[in-house]
Each structure stands twice: as structure tokens, then as C-alpha cells.
Amino acid sequence: MEHAETVHTVSPALLRELYRHKWYYNLKIPLFYGLLIGFGYIAWHTSRVWVEWLMYGLIGYLWMSIVTFMHDCTHSVLFKARWKNWAFGIFSTLPLIITFISFREDHLEHHRYNRSPQDPDAFTMGQRGFWDFVLLYAYIVVGGILTIIQFTFIYPLQKFRQKQLLIHWGEVTLRVVFYTGLILWTSSLGVREQFLRLWLIPGYIFSFLNSVRFIAEHYETPWNAGQLAGTRTIISNQVNSFFWNNINYHMGHHVYPAVPWYNLQKLHQALLPEITRKRAVVDPSYFGVFFKACLSGPESVERNVARLSTQAKKRALQPELPG
Fold first, then answer.
1. pLDDT for the residue 5
2. What pLDDT does 318 receive?
3. pLDDT confidence of residue 68
4. Which of 143, 165, 147 is nearest to 156 (CA)?
5. What are phi and psi of 299, to 5 degrees?
6. Could you tell me if 15 and 256 are in contact, meaning their C-beta atoms sit under 8 angstroms apart?
């Protein structure tokens, strides 16, 4: 079990219940893969362009569902058995090109150093120089490509040692064989272009949605303030919560990462007193935060401190305002 920030409003008895695995919730996994196959079948066979693109959009949206399952595998909580988390993690990342071990190690490091200089995912924080703007907006537009470069080359070469590198390059080899086989097979059937559309267009839609989600989870939360304060929960709506497996209840996940996805809403309710006491950031919309990030650009520590100070002063004055 990973380290959890101490939160006194969650009782040990409740935490034991929240940590407990319940296998039947994971029946969503075959359901979502069934939907992916069904939407892919419709996109492949329809003669209507708008139906084809609608299916591409739905497939891209559902890829986020699969990735949030895989995300639980990085914390070894989707399944009880460690090998099952690894097996599903490797299988589920096959269409995304990135390796599971690279995503896993980066993500666990992100949890250890959330919103601090050591956080490998805190690229929105910088000096607001030219390249900070380039990186932020490039991630918004071509986040999928940058993610592939980061997790295939940059992060492994910087961080991995012998055993991790062997696993990583083994996964890369598996993907090269898998993609080559698919492309050769579809080429022999004369449907390579159709196959590439079905793979790459939803992949781009997914990468954009993933950029929206990723930025919204931490952008303009307090810097170097711990797991709860340095994370944003997006209440969003129950459709997103269902299909994205409650990843929007992100504060609870950061404070107690060993809680499975299906208990995150209950955990959020238990954390509400602490969230209120610390005035942690809860927002109603992914796109609301995302558009703000697009308009405001990359962060800096100085701007972060100044913005939080201004917000604190406004909150202090609120009880004195009429109404």
C-alpha cells in the first residue's frame, strides 16, 4: 500500500472498507471493451460519414475508460493479484504505443512528489518563458505524440536501470511486432487505410481528452502543499464519473491511492470536512479549468502564490459582503 497523507476525518474502519476489493465492479471492463468493439464495427461498416465520425468520438472517449482502469493497475489495486495488474496494464496500453512500465514508474513518482520540483508531470509550472508556452500548447494540440516520446525514450533513458530497461524494451518489442503484424495483415486484405483511420483518429481524440483531464487535475493548485491541497477534484457529472471510473474525484485518489476506483465517491464524501477546512480546490467542469489554462498559459511559482493570496483575501471578505 502506498503512503497516504494523514487525514483525521476518515476513520480507520471506513478506510479498511474502502480498501476492500470487490471483483464484480470490474465487470465494467468487458462491458467497455464490448462497447469499443461495437462502435468499431459500426464505424468500419457504415456508409454515413457523420456516423463514422460519431463512432470515432465515442471510441476516443471510451479509451479514457480503459486508461483509467489501467491507471488503477499502476497502484496495483484494479486486481488483488499483482501479476493481473501487470498483465492488464500491458494489454490495455497496446493501442496507445506507450509502455505500461514507463507510465507506471512516472505516475508513482508523480504521486510521491505531487506539485513539487521533483514531480515529473508538473510541466505546466515554469518561468513562463517562450519554451514553457510552447510545451503547454503543444501538449494541448499534440499531447499524444509528446506522451509517446516521453514514455518511450526520455523518461526510460533518464530514470530506468537494467531490469526496468529490459522490461521497457521488451514491451516496445511486443508493440513493434503487434503493430507490424496488424499493418501487414490489413494491407494484405486491402483495408490498411481503413484500419489506420479506426486506430489513429480515435487515438487523437483520446489524446486531446486526456490533455484536458490531465491539465485540470492539478493546474493552479497550491505548489508544494501536499496531496490534498495540490490536487483538484472535478465534480463534473455522473456520466463522466461512470465512464471515466471516478478519476474526477482526484483528491481522494492522491491522498489514498490504494482505494479502488469504485470507492472514490464514498471517499470523497468522507474527505469533505478536510476539503472544506483546507479550502482545497473543487471545480464543476474539466473544460472550465482547461479553457482557463488555455487563456492563462503556463504557471510560475510567483504567479501561483500571488493568485492564491488574492483568492484568500477575497474569501476573507466574503462574510462581510451583503447577501
1. 65
2. 60
3. 98
4. 165
5. -90, 170
6. yes
Q: What pTM, to 2 d.p., does this model score? A: 0.93
What residue spans define the domains of the chain?
Answer: 12-317
Cβ distance 151 to 139 under 8 Å?
no
Residue 323 — pLDDT band, cuts 50, 70, 90?
very low
User: How big is the CA angle at 212 (ends 285 and 244), to the nearest 5 degrees?
Assistant: 70
Computed over every residue of the chain, the mean pLDDT equals 94
Start-to-end CA distance of the chain, whole Å, equals: 47
Residues 6+ apart with CB under 8 A from 170: none
Cα–Cα distances in Å, from 172 out to 57, 152, 179, 275?
27, 8, 11, 41
Which residue, 204, 206, 219, is CA-closest to 121?
Answer: 219
Residue 317, classed as helix, strand or coil, is helix
CB 217 within 8 A of CB 157: no
Instruction: Please name the amino acid found at residue 168.
Output: H
Residue 115: φ, ψ to 5°: 50, 50
Grid cell of 231 as nine digits: 490536487
